[in-house]
Amino acid sequence: MTAGEQPRTALESPGGNTISAEPEQATSDSGLEALDGPFTTRQLLRLDEALRVADQQTGLTFSVYLGELDEPTRESAERLHRQLSGADTAVLLAVSPNQRVLEIVTGSAARKRISDRDAKLAALSMAAAFAGGDLAGGVLSGLDQLASHAGRH
Amino acid sequence: MIDVRIIGTTDALGALKLSVLNTFLVFAVIPLAVVAVVAALVFGGSDRVRRARRYRPGRPYDFKPIWFLASPEQVGPAYGGPETGHQATPPAIEPGVIEDSSGARVLPGPTGGASDRW
């Protein structure tokens, strides 16, 4: 690179607030909606990190759904799971705090790495955390257990 | 004859010199000021609105549904994903092993997993 060519920076125009002073700059619209949820910013950051690390280490696609599930909940969670592209290697953790039910759905390829018994073990520890009111901690420990049972790819 | 003499007079005892106003200042105003400072720190220091927004078992949970995904572009095009953009293809998993870590056969089926309630 010659001295005349400067690398382009991410900023459209110089100046303005820093990201720490105005976090909305670095957040997408869907990210802003997540800030209205039951999690603090710190919990959201930890959740983001856990999802990214689990995806990278295992090669599976982990996702967490938090909200109402239609009855019967199992079929409803499997419908959500089918919406993911690459559903064979996807793992969905669906949690409905109002119905007090959680479903772990593993795709046909993912269930060779995470057996149903491993999934049940993760579900038990998640339910224990949820019963204590710790939504973020339960999701994090469930992701951690499922990812470590799946192993590295 | 024994000469009795009081050595200290009542003027020398400090406590008895306090006027009503001084007593009130020391024993009522100062403790109340300390209490007020502590109460102000307790109730004004934290954002109580933010803390109330959390899940408690048994209380209604009235947040909008959220779906967390490490890479949202993996949601299929029919559900708001990109139409023709590069879809991240997950790495292939070697087929053939239909048994779990303990050697027990995994039942064939489209999806597996587990459920629980609390």
Could you provide a short overview of the structure?
The complex is a heterodimer of chains A (153) and B (118). Chain A has 153 residues and is an alpha+beta fold.
What proportion strand of chain B? 5-15%
Report the biggest beta sheet of chain A as strand number plus sense, adding barrel if it closes.
3 strands, mixed
* Distinct helical segment count of chain B: 2
Q: Biggest interface: chains and residue counts?
A: A-B, 69 and 46 residues
What is the end-to-end distance of chain A? 38 Å
Tell me the helix content of chain A.
40-55%
Number of helices, counting only DSSP H or I runs of 4 residues or more of chain A: 6
Provide the residue-averaged pLDDT of chain A. 84
**Share of β-strand residues of chain A:** 5-15%
Q: What percent of the residues of chain B sit in helical stretches (DSSP H or I)? A: 25-40%
Structural class estimated from helices and strands of chain A:
alpha+beta
Assembly state of the chains shown: heterodimer
Please report the distance between the alpha carbons of the first and last residues of chain B: 94 Å
Please count the beta strands of chain A (DSSP E, at least 2 residues each): 3
Spatial strand order of the main sheet of chain A: 1-2-3
Structural features, described:
The complex is a heterodimer of chains A (153) and B (118). Chain A is an alpha+beta fold and 153 residues long. Chain A has 6 helices and 3 strands, in the order ααβαββααα. In chain A, strands 1-2-3 form a 3-stranded mixed β-sheet, with helices on both faces. In chain A, α2 (41-58) runs parallel beside α6 and α5 packs antiparallel against α6 (135-150). Chain A starts with 28 loop residues before the first helix and ends with a helix. The model of chain A has no long low-confidence stretch (mean pLDDT 84). By secondary structure, chain B is α+β, with helices and mostly antiparallel strands. Chain B is 25% helix and 8% strand. Chain B is built from 2 helices and 2 strands; from the N terminus they run ααββ. Chain B has helices at 20-44, 48-52, and strands spanning 66-69, 112-117. Chain B is rod-shaped. Chain B starts with 19 loop residues before the first helix and ends with a strand. The chains are: A alpha+beta (153), B alpha+beta (118). Chains A and B meet through α1, α2, β1, α3 and β3 of A and β1 and β2 of B.
